[in-house]
Amino acid sequence: MDASDLPRYATDPENVIAEAVVAVEPALAPELVRSVVRATFPRGTQRRKLAELLQQDPSWLTQGRPESPTIIERIIRALREQGAVNVRQLRCGACGRASRLVGCLPGSASRICNTCQGRRRHEANPCAVCGRHDFVTRDRDGRPRCRNHPPDDGADPLKGLCGVIQQLCPGLSEQTVSEAIRAVEPVMGRQRRLLWALEDRPELLTGGQAAHGPIKVLHLIAALRERGAVNLMVPPCPYCGRNVPLPRTRNGLRCCTECPSAARAEPCARCGRDRPVMGRTHDNLPLCHACRHHNPVVHQVCAQCGERRYIQSRKNGRPLCERCHQYPTATCSECGEQRPCLHASTDAPICVPCTRRRRPRAICVGCRRDNMVSYRTADGEPLCSSCGATHRPCAQCGRTLRIHGIAPNGDELCPTCWRHHPARKRPCSECGTATHLHHYGLCPDCAARARLRDVLSIEGRMRPGIEPVFNALAGRPGTNVLYWLNRRPARLSVLRTLAAGSGPITHATLDGLRPAKVVDNLRMHLVAGGALPARDEQLAALERWLAARTAQVRDPESRKVLQAYTTWHLLRRLRRFSRRRPVSQAQAHGVRAYVTQVVRLLNWLHTQGIALNACTQDLLDAWLDDYPGRGPRVHGFLAWTSRNGHTRPFAVELPTPAFTGQLIAQDARWQLVSRLIHDNEIPVSDKAAGLLALLFAQDLSRVVALTTEHVEVARGAVLLRLGQVPAQMPPPLDDYIRTLHAQAAATSTAGERRLFPGRFPTQHLSSSQLVRRLHALGIRPRMARNTALVELASELPAVMVSRLLGVHQNTADPWKRIGGQDNTYAAELAAPPRSKAHAIAPARLGDPPPTPLRPSAALPTPPASTASATTTTSRSAPDRDFRAGPQFMPDQ
Asked: If 867 and its partner were Cys, which of 188, 297, 465, 665 is the partner (CB 3.0–4.6 Å)?
């Protein structure tokens, strides 16, 4: 039933009552009347009942009729306390006086005052001994007694109770037992009834049968056990058998709070399950606890979002729905995080996520999975939320699924249909944007800003130095920020540490925080948001690693030499390189491998008692005998030390530079190209990366670093700058590049406009991740690049290959000789091999790297049908667009 189908007294009882009262008392303001109604009748059922009475007959307020319900008397007395003069107080149906009415006349609806009620009670209960109408109490048989004839001849019940209890607990003194009895029941008449109950059933104290007696027996057992009694037994619930408090009654027996509710279970009118009745519809149909929230009778207008919903709480008298209600913030007693918590005013507050984790887990009888118990079968078997929810046909898609939402027209929708239904969008209570609200009536963006402000504030205020952090994070999409904050608690700890600090937030500030992964992730967001300047992270991490690694050298003099080598040779070259492009992960890994072997060499010399400047060729050869592969790693360090006078010149045996790259057959290469073009299941990014490797000989570390600045989209062509000169992309590769360019240009931050964006802001896709994706397609990037480079170098001059593909001239020349276009290649094959022992002489930083001298083996040319992985075959392109190769554009 919709709220529009209900009478007004059921949907808006406060205004109905206020209108009826103001019509009688014009001097009272409607707001005052509504506040009086809320204070007098905290329960909605009482307000609806009063509104129904006054809407049907407003004269209840002015006639003072004795048959008026109690609810009318309560509102009249509350209004008269606020200065009302026209409402009339109810008069007794027996004596006619205006007084408080406490009872009813037998056989009549008229109510009577306390005096008339006492007189009637005395007249109806004459003393069983003398017949006088002076009723005071009753004896053990329930007969009335007067003051002159008390039960048990006026014996003191306290002594009798002490005697009964001391027989069961001889270790307790009479004074201790008397104190316990007076603490539980100080009135003599009630002590007597307690004594009668124990005399009739002595097992109430020791046999676990206290649930069959009065509630005071339970209180007496607790009081005696606190004072040292050991023979008394606390009874379990007689229905469920649990050892819990027994505050309720069911069929005359004391029981726990859940068993009476289970006894009055009825089929819910909304979900159809047998559940305890927690509410009723306007038609008096039963509702369970979960469905009661959907009952429009109990809904009210939320003071924050203005929608009619189930009211979760009230703040300063203002009703708040479940979305707008927010629990007070406190430190959770389980996870230790500062979050909105239940029981925030107690010593054990608990946040909402921890509350959910407290739910019991068991094997669901429906799906047989270990999950949280959300429902139970009629036999008490556990069910998870998916198996226990009632499934009904969705009004939109027709599938029988769990109903997740109800549209304004009453249609029940499944989770998928409700997620896309326009009715799910609500206006944000802060910015007014109509969207899917996150919580407390706020959209994700406003909720994220409120969460950030709470985390970054100290005593409700943010210091000036932390405001750039807030602005940078608040500029991200709200859903992403909330997920980022709630995913790992360590992120909140880092943010609170920054908020509690002083001064501006810099890279040096973040370098001193832990854990490193959380700090690095935060740094990416701050750089993307403009709170921190961009820096080469691989270089910065390498600098920190080198400082820690060089400190592991045991000899102080050797440590100084290594520090000078890393500072003035390795880092200086990397910093100069970093001006052109960021240091790659492979470069940093290579430096770490070199320095690691140098540290091992220096520590080995220290264990031998030899200083670095006293090292000889024999000692170096002895160290290299165990691991010959260490030679190339320490070659550069020893060359630098000999050049700068720290050591004598050494000879280190190095492997002969040779071409060892593998190639793929041309027909296999073009088959891979054809698959990338025609397979629609492959993502566009993987297609573009694979084609750039197969056709343009691009290394994946350079492919992932491409940005929108490398692309020029003209009307009829797409130009991609891989080297000094832009190359025109052939179709359909141009469409792939155009798609990636449009996606990258649509991002909000210029630093993130990468053709291959990574998971984190300002970061491109990892080359290793792209390698794994291409491997799944059967593409080996290194072999594809070698094959493409051999073919291009065989068709184009080396200088054009260098300017087009971005490779160095010294690299293009050997590849051209490998392609068979240079006569000097044959001469090198016939030349005698060079010695593998190279004397380390001083070298300049500008010297070119060593070039490949000759291939490891001749490359035979197999038949065109052969698809060998280590040979080169004739080209058979599937598309004429690619057979023409890259086209050069004039310099710009």
From this structure: 665
Half-sphere exposure at residue 253, Cβ-oriented, CA atoms within 13 angstroms: 19
Looking at residue 851, what is its pLDDT? 31
Can you state the angle between helices 157-168 and 188-200, rounded to 10 degrees?
40
Whether 861 and 872 have beta carbons less than 8 Å apart is answered as yes
Question: Which stretch of 152-161, 655-664, 762-771, 825-834 has the lowest confidence by average pLDDT?
Answer: 825-834
Cis before 157? omega within 30: no
Residue-wise pLDDT for 268-297, tens only, equals: 888 888 888 888 888 888 988 888 888 888
Q: Is 756 helix (H, G, I), strand (E, B) or coil?
A: coil
Measured CA to CA, the distance from residue 112 to residue 101 in angstroms comes to: 5
Q: How many C-beta atoms surround the C-beta of residue 289 within 10 A?
A: 13
Q: Residue 412 corresponds to which tokens in the numbers above?
A: 């029940």
Query: What are the DSSP calls for 604-660, one per residue?
Result: HHHHTT--GGG--HHHHHHHHHH-GGGHHHHHHHHHHHHHTTSS---EEE-PPPEE-
What's the start-to-end Cα distance of the chain, in Å?
73
For the residues of 365-426, what is the DSSP string, one character each? TTT--EEE--EE-TT--EE-HHHHSPEEE-TTT--EEE--EE-TTS-EE-HHHHHT-GGG-E
Q: Are 91 and 73 in contact (CB under 8 A)?
A: no
What pLDDT, on a 0 to 100 scale, did the predictor assign at position 23? Answer: 92
Instruction: Provide the CB-side half-sphere exposure for 890 (13 A, CA).
Output: 1
Peptide bond preceding 890: is omega within 30 degrees of 0, i.e. cis?
A: no
- Rounded to whole angstroms, the Cα distance separating 31 from 45 reads 20
| CA-wise closest residue to 219 among 274, 267, 182, 258 | 182
- Residue 861, pLDDT score: 30
Q: Say which range, 138-152, 257-271, 747-761, 813-827, has the weakest mean pLDDT.
A: 813-827
Tokens for 756, please give them: 């291959």
Check whether 712 has a pLDDT greater than 60. Answer: yes
- Rounded to an integer, the average pLDDT of 184-191 is 88
**Nearest to 41, CA basis, from 72, 85, 81:** 72
Q: What is the DSSP letter of 722?
A: S
- Residues 537-563, mean pLDDT to the nearest whole number: 90
